[in-house]
Amino acid sequence: MFKAIVSAETLTSALDSVSVLVDECKIHLEEDGLEIRAVDPANVGMVDLSLDAAAFESYEADGGLIGVDLSRLEDIAGMAESGQLIQLELDEETRKLQIQIDGLEYTLALIDPDSIRQEPDIPDLDLPAEVVLEGKDVNRSVTAADMVSDHIALGVEEGDEYFYVDAEGDTDDVHLELTGEDLIDLQVGPAHSLFSLDYLKDMNKAIPKDTEVTLHLGEEFPVKIYFGFAEGQGQVTYMLAPRIQSE
Amino acid sequence: MRLDEYIEDLEPDEEAERRRLAKEKSYEITDHLEEFERRFDDALSGDTLVGSTSPSIFVGRSNYPDIPVGLLSPVGDEDDAEEYVTDGDWYRQGYAIDDVLQRRTSLLNSNKRANVDSPSIASRLTPSVHDAWEGFVGVQREVAIADRPVDLEIGLDDTPDLGIDPGTDVATPRGPRANARNAELRENPYVPKPVKKTLEDDDWQAQGAMTYLYRRGFDVYDINSILSAGALGETEQRRLVPTRWSITAVDDTIGQFLRGRIRNEPSVDEVQVWVNEYMGNRYWVILAPGSWEFELVEMKAPGSIWNPNPEDDVWLQSASEGYDGRSSYVDETAGAYYAARLGVLEHLESIGRQAKCLVLREVSDDYWAPVGVWQVRESVRNAFDGVPGNAGGRESLAGEYGEAETFHGAVAQVAKRLPVSYERLQRKSELAAGLQSNLDAFSRSK
Asked: Which residue of A186, B167, B253, B317 pairs with B332 in a disulfide if CB–CB is 3.0 to 4.6 A?
């Protein structure tokens, strides 16, 4: 059983943060909210999302599992105007999702969850540095780096205590330093890793500019990117494997 | 063989010798053109070329979609028509740049303009070339799908322009051109069964049909010609495709097919460096363990074509893709990217492995005329296979590889032999900067 009413913004934000990595996903319809875990086919980028029942106008579920085509569902959600509510209801008989937006009814065929790639185990990483910054600073870093290169280095300078972003291109460079004053919080530790901008650009699209973003970093280790949406009732954790410079 | 010993074997002196020979030979082209003119006069009867034979076609792209469609024929050398077809045989026979130019400039391109999807007035109502077997375009399509040169008679509108088009980076150079009035078959061309099958199936997407032909043993050169003539794909989609575009389309399509085949294969288990040299180009192919990733970096020496000013710095261009391939056409390296990628994927598919692969292409000033992207394809293909029978007196390391401990160690070592520094390479190359790891490598499992 699943029946829920949610604002278009909240649903769209949730779907967008997953669709940057995969085309289809499994959605766990838990009693206390939705959960999605997915990894891209190359096993490079992972998303772990939860959307609490409190983020919905109304929410009823009892632990079901559905598989959806994300771009389909995003297209439908995109039919709603800002501020409109979307009603979702699972038809257990037909295994289809009934979607209603202000009188518009859409019946969405679901995908057999067994046919969707297995959900990833979340790696247990020991990441020594933690950086808390505003979404707009993540956006600024990624956008500037993309002008000169296809990859970006993220690191923490332990001595002078700052977080830095480096991008080296064929001819041009980008460098950004954010000290304790520019950041919301910083826990220094040995950290320097290179990441593909292809992935980071996509993840950045899903990060609200006015939200608080927490980065966990290590040396040639994946980055963990955590942020909230829907007034803190939705949580997204991305994990991205680095490009290795030393081997 | 250890990588350092492997690299030791590259003899710079031989290169210098070849350079000297290449320069001498380039003057022969002028003599050759005069001979062509004489042969052409002999073959012309009135304004019709009688007893001609055509091994291949050329579809231009100027003024698209009203493009020049051409029949290529080796005037006065009909008995050896097969030799004029651009394919892997040219590499196997050790053709040098001037051999290619001689072959190509001996081919008369008799062409006529046609619309890509409605070549005749009759077909304007249903724009697609799939039923066009009459007239000039029809004859041209017959030649494209036949498996050997076709005898025909071509009526010319005027005497040919003997000027030579030096070619581009993708298509092979072209020779003299003439405006054709008509063409008639002098025999019933033989069309291989699989080609008939793709031709007759009008509900088969072009990509699937191309892959089918490839699996049936047709090389990309044959498929390119068939695609160019609009002889495969869904009926309404069939149209004439400029040769230059179809070369890249076929390399890309077959490459995607092969990439799919190795997607779930185990990775190579050591870092290997392969090298091959051909026509003033040197190719380093570095394979490393891990999931599929590919990059081509081109270094064009000052004084080579595309970088003609001898005072300029080495030109660098690169393009790369990750495990899932690219979502956009490459901006830099163009058709060479897909040709090199095909060569690598064919090797990996044949050994049932995937790998991370960096191809470094050095273009020296010996490369004085572009011969077409087939040169890239064959050089990379044969880096793994070696030079058959030491063709053309070429000494080569092709077919052997050097081993290295790490990918970046191998790149650093190879960089000592490159015209650019390791630092500059790292700035330009996505793979030299860092290899994409995956999350499994960091799982300590919860």
From this structure: B317
